[in-house]
Structure formats: C-alpha cells, structure tokens
Amino acid sequence: MPVDEDKYPEESGRRRFIKGVVGSAALAGVTASAGASLNLATSAPGAGGGTVEFIGIEITDGPAPRGMPIIPVEISDGTLQGLFPEAEEVQQQGRTVQIAETDVGGTTYSSSWFQYCGVQQYAGTQPGADANNTFTAKPDGTYEWMSDLSSGDPLTVDNFSDYEEWGNGIGQSGLGKPAMANWRNTSDGRALPVQVIRSPEVPKMANGEGKYSELPGAVQDFLAEATDQGFMAWLDKCTHFCCVPGFKTSEYPGAEDGVYCQCHQSIYDPFSPTQYQFVALPRPD
C-alpha cells in the first residue's frame, strides 16, 4: 500500500519560525533512504529512532508534514483508556533494549509513533513506564462543556452521551463531541496531550460504509480495533511545530469541521485516516 512520505512545504512569505522549538518538522526533508541510514546509526524503530509507518488523522492544508498518530481506544467499566504496547526486552546490536509494539488490526502499533516533538523524552513514552493509560480531563477552556469536570477526572462514556447532537456554534452540529485529555501520566508530571472525540462517523469509517468505502483496507482493519463505541483519539501534537490543535475550534475557512492548529494554520481531517511514514526521533535508553 502506498504511504504518504514526509514532505516539507514550499517556502512562502507567511511561514515563520519559533526560536527554540525543536520537533520532527526538522526531519521532514529526510527521505526514506536517509531514514534507513539513520537506522544503522541508532537502533530499530521502537528501541530508538528510525523510519516508522503509522496511521494518523490526515493533514489536508497548511505546513504540517504529516498527520497526527491515532491512539487505539479501550473502554473499561465505562472509562476511556488508550492502549500502549506492552514492553519486552530484545537483543539489538549486541545489547539488551526494551521495545513496545503490538499488532492492531494487522498494523504494527509502536511507542515509536509518538517519538517526535520532544514527546520521545517524556517518561510516559518509554516502554515499561509505570504510567496511567486512562484518558483524564484537561479542561483548559477549549470546550465549555468540560468546565463541569476537574483536571485529572477520568473521561467516561457518559460524558459524551449527547455526541450525536453536540455542537458549539462552529461548523456542523452532530458531527461529534470532542474533549481535551491527558494520557500516560507518570511521576514526572508530563502527560501526553490527547484529543478524544466520539462521533457517529467513526463506526462508519471502521466498517467502510458509504463514502468511507474508499479508505484502504489496512486503515479500516486498524480502525476496527482502534476505536470503540464511536470513540477515537490521537496524540495532539501538530507535526509542524508541536502546537496543540483542536477539533471544531475555529471558523478559519476549511477548518470548521476539522482539527485546526492556530499557530500556522495547519488543518487535519479526523475522518480521513491515512498511513504515513516518518523518521522517529531517538528516545533515551
């Protein structure tokens, strides 16, 4: 199946750079062959850095080089959780290292999906970390409905009971209800930022219904196992300069029913998951 290669946008007058921000965008011009060379200098994906294929929500406009990786959702007693692969020790290049990867619908889902934008330094990204996989509320003012929750409250199915009618005056109502969340909390206090939505479109994507019949089979198979009861989630780090975008947060043209990054006007479509390739940054051993 073809994959979207990383590509850096052409220079334009509106692009601006933020001093001190280091992210995977700096690697956006690295080709697959260069990524293979990097593999030789570091270690295999999941144990360090290297070329990785992942499934993410599609980037449709703006300078971001690729989509944001989808996190498989699990529901336990009505509480939303994100699947993180179990760690195991393997021998690589004469040393023992930990990797974290598993099969999700025929796709290799790995901790290396999240190794960009400095997230590879978070304790919660490390295989075997003692981290909380529950999605917890982050009521930062993005969505008014979340003001009824306290920071750190577990997100539950009941929080999204009105998802088929919910609207915030931006774009189309009834397309889905979003939440800002934290994931993989550890003692270092640096949780991974996550966007969660519950939408009637999610099971249609997983089943290849209607307009979603054009989704590649591998993507549908992944979604069938990575979503549940209409819920899907992704790591909420824009792949351009690591900002935190939001679903249905802006009336910027073309972004009303999408995920919009206010920093440089990148727009993502959560209802068009795509397979991508990028060079994951090395994580600490």
Summarize the structure.
The protein is mostly beta strands. It is built from three helices and 14 strands.
- The fraction of residues assigned to DSSP E strands is 25-35%
**Proportion in helices:** under 10%
Flag low-confidence runs: 1-46
Number of strands: 14
Look at the helices and sheets and give the structural class: mainly beta
Give the topology string: H per helix, E per strand: HEEEEEEEEEEHHEEEE
Shape: globular
The description of the largest β-sheet is: 9 strands, antiparallel
Mean pLDDT: 86
List the helices and strands and how they pair.
Elements lengths: L31 H10 L8 E12 L6 E4 L1 E4 L2 E4 L4 E6 L2 E10 L2 E4 L25 E2 L39 E7 L8 E7 L2 H7 L9 H10 L4 E5 L10 E2 L11 E3 L4 E15 L5
Structural description of this entry:
The protein is mainly beta and 285 residues long. It has one domain (24-280). 9% of the residues lie in helices and 30% in strands. The protein has three helices and 14 strands. It has helices spanning 32-41, 201-207, 217-226, and strands at 50-61, 68-71, 73-76, 79-82, 87-92, 95-104, 107-110, 136-137, 177-183, 192-198, 231-235, 246-247, 259-261, 266-280. A nine-stranded antiparallel β-sheet has the order 8-9-10-11-2-1-14-13-12, sandwiched between helices. A hairpin with a 2-residue loop joins strand 6 (95-104) and strand 7. Helix 2 crosses helix 3 (217-226). The chain starts with 31 loop residues before the first helix and ends in a 5-residue tail after the last strand. The relative contact order is 0.24. Residues 1-46 have low confidence and may be disordered.
